[in-house]
Amino acid sequence: xxxxxxxxxxxxxxxxxxxxxxxxxxxxxxxxxxxxxxxxxxxxxxxxxxxxxxxxxxxxxxxxxxxxxxxxxxxxxxxxxxxxxxxxxx
Length: 90
Fold this sequence. Notes:
Layout: H1 2-11, H2 15-49, E1 53-58, E2 61-66, E3 75-77
Antiparallel strand pairs: 1-2, 1-3
Helix pairs in contact: 1-2
């Protein structure tokens, strides 16, 4: 809509308004791109922080391992509020 307004302003000879409108459009696009980039970076950091882990009893001791590192024979230790670690499959 603003680009159409800039074109219309330019076509009637009001170049000053056309330039101002185009500058606003470009700044808005840059700001939107920057915010989206920051949001994606933040989401990636949160996903990395929340990578699933499990506390297991293995070889006579308690270890914290990535959920993908669970093997048959591991005894998964759960507490209230813990999520069951899934490694894929069914």
